[in-house]
Automatic annotation (TrEMBL):
It is found in: Cytoplasm; Melanosome. One of its GO terms (cellular component) is nucleus. The lineage of its organism: Eukaryota, Metazoa, Chordata, Craniata, Vertebrata. GO terms for biological process: apoptotic signaling pathway; calcium ion transport; mitochondrial calcium ion homeostasis; negative regulation of sequestering of calcium ion. Belongs to the annexin family. The keyword Cytoplasm applies. It comes from Catagonus wagneri (Chacoan peccary). This is Annexin. A pair of annexin repeats may form one binding site for calcium and phospholipid. InterPro entries: Annexin, Annexin_repeat, Annexin_repeat_CS, Annexin_sf, ANX6. GO terms for molecular function: calcium ion binding; calcium-dependent phospholipid binding; phosphatidylserine binding. PROSITE patterns: ANNEXIN_1 (PS00223), ANNEXIN_2 (PS51897). Gene3D superfamilies: Annexin (1.10.220.10). Keywords: Annexin, Calcium, Calcium/phospholipid-binding, Cytoplasm, Repeat.
Length: 330
C-alpha cells in the first residue's frame, strides 16, 4: 500500500457552503419543523451540505430569530440513526469527540474500540480541544474519567495519549535505532539484555505515544531492517487484548491514517447487521478532515466504493444523509 507522502494533502468531503446565509438557513429549518411532522429531507439536505462552522452560525441565528434551541428542536423531530447523525453533525468537533468518549465509558461495559479509535488518531491540537470540551460539558477531567473506567497498562496508554503531548518534529535517526531496539526487545524478537519487562513496556509505550509520526515511520523502517518483521504484524502476534488493539491502532494511524479509517468503515458494514454507531462516528468526524482520502483507500483495498458499501448496507433518510457526507461515487 502506498504510504501517504510526508505532508500529504488530507481532504474532507464537506467544505464551506458558498453564498452562505445563516438566517435564511435558520428559517428553512424552522419551516421544515413547523406544524405536524417534519420535512426530514429538507433538514438533512441543508445540514449535510454546510460546514461545521456554518452550522454553529445557523444555531445562533435560529436562537435569535425564534428564541428557541435548534438542537432541542431537531432532537424532538428526528429519531434513531438519522437523529444521531444530524445531531452529531451539529456539534463542534471537540464536543462531539468528548461526547463519544463519554458514551464509550458510560454504563456497565466500556467500549474500548471507540476509546482507541478516537485517542489513537487525533492530533495534539484536537486532543487538547477534546480535553477542554470534556471538562466544560461533564465537569470532570477526561483523565479522571479514563482512570476510573479502564485499568492496568491499557489505562496508562490511554492517559498518555489523552495528554496530547506527542512530539511534532522530524525524525532522529540514532534515536530511531534505539527505539526500534526497544520495540524488538519488548516484542521478543531480540534478546533482552536489560531483563526488566515492566520498564521495557513503559519505554515502548512512551515511544508509541509520544514520538512524532515522522519519527515513528523511521522507527518502523529500522525495526524491519533489524528484525525482518513488520512491527504491526509482530504486535498482533506477541500481544493480546486491549493493549494489543491500542498499539496496533497507533501503528496503523502512523502508517496511513485514512486507510485505518477505511478499514474501520468496512468492518462496520461487513457481514450481517451494521455497526451504525461506528459508521456514524467516523463519517461525522472525518467529513471535514480526510474523507476523500479514506474513500480512495477504501476502493483501492476493497474493490468497491464507500458509496456502494453504504448503499448496500443502510436505507431511508439515514442512507441519503450518509451519501451526501460521502460525496461523489468513486
Amino acid at each position: 500500500m502506498a504510504k501517504p507522502a510526508q505532508g500529504a494533502k488530507y481532504r474532507g468531503s464537506i467544505h464551506d457552503f458558498p453564498n452562505f446565509d445563516p438566517s435564511q438557513d435558520a428559517e428553512t429549518l424552522y419551516n421544515a419543523m413547523k406544524g405536524f411532522g417534519s420535512d426530514k429531507e429538507a433538514i438533512l439536505e441543508l445540514i449535510t451540505s454546510r460546514s461545521n462552522g456554518q452550522r454553529q452560525e445557523i444555531c445562533q441565528n435560529y436562537k435569535s430569530l425564534y428564541g428557541k434551541d435548534l438542537m432541542a428542536d431537531l432532537k424532538s423531530e428526528l429519531s434513531g440513526d438519522l437523529a444521531r447523525l444530524i445531531l452529531g453533525l451539529m456539534m463542534p468537533p471537540a464536543h462531539y469527540d468528548a461526547k463519544q468518549l463519554k458514551k464509550a465509558m458510560e454504563g456497565a461495559g466500556t467500549d474500548e474500540k471507540a476509546l482507541i479509535e478516537i485517542l489513537a488518531t487525533r492530533t495534539n491540537a484536537e486532543i487538547r480541544a477534546i480535553n477542554e470540551a470534556y471538562k466544560e460539558d461533564y465537569h470532570k477531567s477526561l483523565e479522571d474519567a479514563l482512570s476510573s473506567d479502564t485499568s492496568g497498562h491499557f489505562k496508562r496508554i490511554l492517559i498518555s495519549l489523552a495528554t496530547g503531548n506527542r512530539e511534532e518534529g522530524g525524525e532522529d535517526r540514532a534515536r530511531a535505532q534505539e527505539d526500534a531496539q526497544v520495540a524488538a526487545e519488548i516484542l521478543e524478537i531480540a534478546d533482552t539484555p536489560s531483563g526488566d519487562k515492566t520498564s521495557l513496556e513503559t519505554r515502548f509505550m512512551t515511544i508509541l505515544c509520544t514520538r512524532s509520526y515522522q519519527h515513528l515511520r523511521r522507527v518502523f523502517q529500522e525495526f524491519v531492517k533489524m528484525t525482518n518483521y513488520d512491527v504491526e504484524h509482530t504486535i498482533k502476534k506477541e500481544m493480546s487484548g486491549d493493549v494489543r488493539d491500542v498499539f496496533v491502532a497507533i501503528v496503523q494511524s502512523v502508517k496511513n491514517k485514512p486507510l485505518f479509517f477505511a478499514d474501520k468503515l468496512y468492518k462496520s458494514m461487513k457481514g450481517a447487521g451494521t455497526d451504525e454507531k461506528t459508521l456514524t462516528r467516523i463519517m461525522i468526524s472525518r467529513s471535514e478532515a480526510d474523507l476523500l482520502n479514506i474513500r480512495r483507500e477504501f476502493i483501492e483495498k476493497y474493490d468497491k466504493s464507500l458509496h456502494q458499501a453504504i448503499e448496500g448496507d443502510t436505507s431511508g433518510h439515514f442512507l441519503k444523509a450518509l451519501l451526501v457526507l460521502c460525496g461523489a461515487e468513486d
